[in-house]
Specification:
This protein is of the alpha/beta class and 481 residues long. Helices cover 35% and strands 25% of the residues. The protein has 3 domains: 11-103, no CATH class; 109-367, Vaccinia Virus protein VP39 (Rossmann fold, 3-Layer(aba) Sandwich), CATH 3.40.50; 390-480, Arc Repressor Mutant, subunit A (Orthogonal Bundle), CATH 1.10.10. The protein has an 8-stranded mixed β-sheet with strand order 7-6-5-8-9-11-10-12, sandwiched between helices. Strands 14-15-16 form a 3-stranded antiparallel β-sheet, with no helix packed on it. Strands 1-2 form a two-stranded antiparallel sheet. It binds S-adenosylmethionine (SAM).
């Protein structure tokens, strides 16, 4: 048994017995669905607030699954005999109260139909996070997972792997996955998570792209330590570089490890500074020989940004002091707002970077939009009128109608995507008619001529009015080549 329940565990020491733990989990019927059934769907919210009583009441029966849930999910003590009976090797146990606890936590995650198991350091909401602590899966992890393309690729790199969630998910659609992290404990956890489920991930330690220099990847994903501020020493979120320099560096350097046509998908924060265009700032990070797509999801006032991140690590009575120091730090740099978003890079391009402000709710997985976005841009370059565009399958038209003496009269119409970034927008009756004709067989110019004659205007006038709208509809993916 590991000596102290308060010392952070050494994941490398747990590696040899990972197959025994996996066997114990399988025998007990462990799965995300089984745990949801046992603990209830509100379990995560209870855990995030250290509310253990509801979960302890649901695991009183002493079955192997209940014992494993108490050890690895709730992080509470069980009787040593119960732990042994459930098949947990003693190397994975620590003394806890009158019984034993688990050295690590195990978090099952289901994403896009793929289930993975993530091992990470024990954590309690009431206990301050340690700088080198390796956390489980959080909101940002899932934001990146949602934005990751899932079509089959050869080689995938997960940079800043943490407990390995992105690497484990990528293993499902990649021939080979390499995961890197500056924190050796994170690389060790990724190895442990992969070993548990027999997944094939190679974890390396090192700064940014240094561990993979000279190699190329078809897909690079990264949820880097993007938080901007004076730095509180948390390795998982503070880069130790000034402002948004880490994200800038990553975007600038990532093409060096991208195979031709390869994609990188990164999370980032970037600053909006007084007297400077914040959109242009992030757009300037991309190199001349790539294409870029910035999907901005949030733009936060400094006060809101600081509050959110201080709550994330639950600083308790240090909140006031840290809040002031952080806001002073922003004020010194004339920071007016902090943007958050997904940055996508395609290797091979002309240095064009498109920015979408996309604060709307998006689909649970929208990564397929990344490789689809760039060819749409290419198609726009080759001419809009001569191409036979197709309305995307998931687009719906919603009408709001008023009853009149002649019956229902539609007074507004809304186009809505059911998938991807779930863009929506108003459309008039001519636009709706034009889009209905976009079935991929007739060039837009022909459809426009018909529309122009029915509206009694010239083809040129119709084109002048419609082309900017069509361009936006292509960029947002309503119309596809
Ligand atoms: C926000 S966590 C992301 C963890 C995980 N990939 C996820 O999506 O949940 C960022 C990770 O980057 C690592 N990191 C910090 N600085 C780094 C650097 N300079 N080079 C590589 N990794 C770094 C941290 O140790 C941490 O594990």
């Amino acid at each position: 048994m590991t000596p102290s329940p308060t010392a952070l565990p050494d994941p490398d020491e747990l590696l040899p017995d990972a197959p025994l733990v996996w066997a114990a989990l399988q025998t007990a019927g462990w799965s995300a669905a089984a745990l949801d059934h046992l603990l209830g769907v509100g379990a995560r919210a209870h855990l995030d607030r250290d509310e253990l009583a509801p979960l302890l009441r649901r695991t009183e029966g002493g079955s192997p699954l209940e014992v494993l849930a108490r050890l690895f999910v709730l992080g509470t003590e069980v009787d040593l005999k119960q732990a042994r009976k459930a098949g947990v090797p003693e190397t994975w146990l620590v003394p806890d109260g009158y019984g034993v606890g688990a050295a690590v936590r195990l978090q099952p995650v289901v994403h896009g139909g793929v289930e993975v198991l993530v091992a990470h350091d024990p954590a309690r909401a009431a206990t301050r996070t340690r700088p080198e602590q390796v956390l489980g899966v959080g909101a940002a992890s899932l934001t990146l997972a949602a934005a990751t393309p899932r079509s089959r690729v050869g080689r995938t790199l997960d940079l800043g792997t943490g407990s390995g969630i992105q690497a484990l998910l990528a293993d499902d659609h990649s021939d080979r996955v390499v995961a890197t992290d500056a924190n050796p404990r994170a690389a060790a956890y990724t190895r442990l998570s992969a070993a548990l489920a027999g997944r094939d991930v190679e974890a390396r330690v090192g700064d940014l792209l240094e561990p993979v220099s000279g190699e190329t990847y078809d897909l690079v994903v990264s949820n880097p330590p993007f938080v901007i501020g004076p730095g509180n020493g948390y390795v998982y979120r503070d880069a130790g570089l000034d402002g948004d320099e880490l994200c800038r560096r990553l975007v600038a350097q990532v093409p060096s490890v991208l195979a031709p046509g390869g994609h990188a998908v990164l999370l980032a924060n970037w600053l909006h500074v007084a007297g400077e265009d914040g959109d242009a700032r992030v757009q300037s990070w991309f190199g001349e020989d790539v294409d870029g797509w910035v999907v901005q999801r949030e733009l936060a006032a400094p006060e809101d940004y600081v509050t959110a991140w201080l709550r994330d690590t639950d600083e308790g009575d240090r909140f006031d002091e840290l809040y002031d120091a952080w806001l002073d730090w922003f004020a010194l740099r004339d920071v007016e707002a902090v943007a958050f978003g997904v940055l996508a890079v395609r290797q091979g391009g002309t240095g064009r970077v498109h920015l979408d402000d996309a604060p709307q709710p998006v689909a649970a997985t929208w990564g397929e939009q990344v490789p689809a976005f760039f060819p749409r841009q290419d198609a726009l370059d080759r001419g809009v009128l001569t191409r036979a565009w197709r309305l995307r399958e998931d687009v719906r038209l919603h009408q709001v109608a008023q009853r009149t003496e002649e019956g229902w009269l539609a007074d507004s119409q809304l186009l809505q995507q059911e998938a991807g970034l779930r863009w929506s927008g108003g459309v008039d009756v001519y636009g709706a008619t034009l889009l209905a004709g976009c079935d991929g067989t007739r060039p837009l110019g022909d459809l426009l001529s018909v529309l122009a004659s029915s509206a009694g205007i010239s083809d040129d006038d119709a084109a002048e009015q419609v082309l900017p709208v069509v361009e936006r509809l292509v960029q947002q993916g309503f119309l596809i080549p």
